[in-house]
Amino acid sequence: MSQNDEKKARAELSRASGAQPDKSAANPRVSGSTEATSNMAKESAQPASVRPVRTAVSDSAAAPARPAAPATPSRPQVPRARRMQLSLTRLEPWSVAKVTFLLAIAGGIIQVVAATLLWLLLNAIGLFDNLTQVISKTGLDAGGFDLGQVLSLSTVLSSVTIFSIFEIVLVVVLVTIFAFLYNMVSSLVGGIHVTLGDD
Q: Taking the CB of residue 112, how many other CB atoms lie within 10 A of it?
């Protein structure tokens, strides 16, 4: 071929290429995605560079470990004892007299029983007979004195009973008078203060 023919063929090819639009320029999204996929393929083909990872060591880890403090056993909480302050400001004389009377009767019965047991014990060991013999030896029994008859059980019980009756009356009267006196003094000084607690 001659040089003129070659020039014509090249001119036709350039015209034909200029007439068709560039698909990649017309669709930029497709070209961008293809470029991104090609770049990812290149990166995956290349060996991944290993970077040294620095571990951040905190100050608490770098410092020497301290021994843990021994756990102290927890003490059970003991409820505090409640306390209450009260004042004894008045005594009812009639109630005091009734309580005193009953207690005095109980004391009188105890005295009679104790006197009976004591007399039986002394009689069992022969104390009255021995005392009578001693008195007769000394010459003091001119009238036939017999200690066993003078201090018989009936005599002792009657004497103790009469003494207990007088004692009951005397104690009741004295305690009732004391209740009246306490009420008078309590009105002046406020009575007796008492602290109560449930320990």
A: 15
